[in-house]
Amino acid sequence: MPEPEWAPLTGFRVAVTSARRADELSTLLRRRGATVTSAAAIEMVPLPDDDELHVHTEALIAEPPDVVIATTGIGLRGWIAAADGWGLAADLTSALSKARIVSRGPKATGALRAAALPEEWSPESESSREVMEYLREGGVDGLRIAVQLHGATADWDPFPEFLDELRAAGAEVVPIRVYRWHPVPRDGAFDALVVGVAEHKFDAVSFTSAPAVAALLMRAAELGVADEVLDALRTDVHAMCVGPVTARPLVRLGVPTSAPERMRLGALARHITDELPLLQSRTITVAGHVLEIRGTCVLVDGVAKDLPPAGMATIRALAHRPGQVVSRGDLLGALPGGGTDTHAVETAVMRLRTALGDKNIVATVVKRGYRLAVDDGAA
Prior knowledge:
- Helices cover 43% and strands 18% of the residues.
- The protein has 15 helices and 17 strands.
- The chain has helices at residues 22-31, 51-62, 73-85, 89-97, 106-114, 128-138, 160-168, 189-198, 210-222, 226-234, 244-252, 265-279, 309-320, 328-334, 343-356, and strands at 13-16, 35-38, 42-44, 67-70, 100-103, 144-149, 172-177, 181-183, 204-207, 238-241, 257-258, 282-286, 289-293, 297-300, 303-306, 362-365, 369-372.
- The protein has a 5-stranded parallel β-sheet, sandwiched between helices.
- Helix 9 packs across helix 10 (226-234).
- Residues 281-374 bind DNA.
């Protein structure tokens, strides 16, 4: 069979907020045809320079916990590497080996085993909820529990309900923020990305960590576009998250999210590839052609037709009510630039017909406006 002339994400615009492995995710999406804008949402505090982690590490060595909960593989490996730099790696692993160790998923499990710290239990689902249920079944009252967290700032903490629930069950909780972060500087590429989300310039925005979500929401508030960003994420800019922990800050705000079954970067790229065309495209049969309207292009019978902004605005306005007449005034209001001359509509329609390859797709209704020539029954 002949190869299609378009890739699965042709015509879709995806924002990437990752601080780590952003190039890898961007490459995977571009190979699938997406137009990608990448700007890291956060910067990590280097572990060897993290005085808070150093102090907490020494405290755990002095008083080993009863239970350790490992949540991420990279966090656990980084913690032990930082301890090694402080000359404390052997003491740290010795202290942790005295505790019951629960792992949240296979990556954390692999890091534990590499450090000769075998886990007592790990859920197949990689779910924090299952970890909580397991611990509560065995009882945590009076236990000292160290929880390795995957990032925090002074104003934002991951897993707040998880930690609060452990405390409510009687445990003494020692949060270990294995790596901390702060938002990237102002007036850079990330600010432009946030404003782009507010202006609905993307079809999807991807998140690979809850801190990145928090950073985007905080920066939107600083820029005065918090309401616009939330409106975009609740409507036609789809939040694609690597997993439920990453999605949690958005879910709390009533933002629809979707995530792959496996919390992996490749799985996220495949998930976006599979889901975005279902969420953010519209297919109509017009003048004997199958039109699929995407973020920056239209597929006509499976052939991608690149359209300028005026052409995309016109086809979207016509497709909003397929087959019905749209007045020149309404089309003028949909065109970018805020012009007042209806001649701009005639020019946009003429160029749209040329780009689509069949002038019959957009029909003129004399003295009334234009309509898509929707086939009988297709409207």
